[in-house]
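SUBJECT: A protein chain and its fold
Encoding: whole-number codes for local backbone shapes
RECORD BEGINS BELOW THIS LINE
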Amino acid sequence: MIRRTLIVLLLFSPMLPAQEEWTEADVEEAVEIATLAADSRQAAEAGDAAAQLLLARCYLTGSGVTKSTDKGLYWVRKAADQGHADAQCLLAECYKKGQGVERNDTEACRWWVKAAHQGNLEGMYRLGMAHLSGEGVQKSEQLGLAWLERSAAAGHIEAMCSLGFCRLQGVGCAQNFAEAAILFEKAAATHHPNATFWLGFCKLHGVGTERKQEEALQLLLKAADALSAPAMVQLGRCYELGLGVQADANKAFDWYWSAARMDNTEACYRLGCMLLDGRGCKSNKDKATKWLKKAAEKGHARAQQKLDEMQKTP
């Protein structure tokens, strides 16, 4: 049975890259995935909601089976209709992204509501964020904050981070920098890049916590290593202004460049400014214009102002 499964997998599996040589670990993993998909199908067809969700994920990702969004949606809907909260969240995500179905924020929220009322942490978090934005559900900062608080209190990392940002900005509540810093620290303990960035930001500027620039820089570097574009921008500012480090325009330029290539709007603006002024690089008006336009197109007011000033200057 195992030998037959392996032969089929080697011939037809779409999920594994072509390799010149298979290691023993590669073969064992391939057999395990194919067997898991086959076992899940049997249990799913027998009505097991957990197996239906697992099979749906196999189809949606192409793990052990030929990738099929339609079949993935069929099985995730089966599980969701049976009340499986994780399946309800996955189905909501499909509607939110328009994956295999027409994008529908209202329908996404309908499934997040079902999951949230079962105590599902992801469902509570996503419903909270929906209430904050008003996408697919009534906009209400109070309701949004309430769902985030419930999810964060139960340990949902993204909810902790979002709640910390609300405390920092005073969204739906009075600003409380100390509580924001505590939430970021809890989330950052799990190595969450966004939380690590915000904790670094707080320590760098002494927001809600003691100002410790050396610790802040280490946190920002850690977040940047995890591809946090905001952390890269903040590091660029540190080197540009000499915050906790010796000012170095070249390093500032490099950090802005890295973040700009990830389409960070603020980085595009700052990179354009440096190219225009020739700081950390050779002055290049054409390249400066390119990056400033990119930032302006995303609504960056100062980038548009800079472009307007450039047009007036001969």
About this structure: Residues 94 and 100 are 7 Å apart (CA to CA). The mean pLDDT is 89. The radius of gyration is 24 Å.
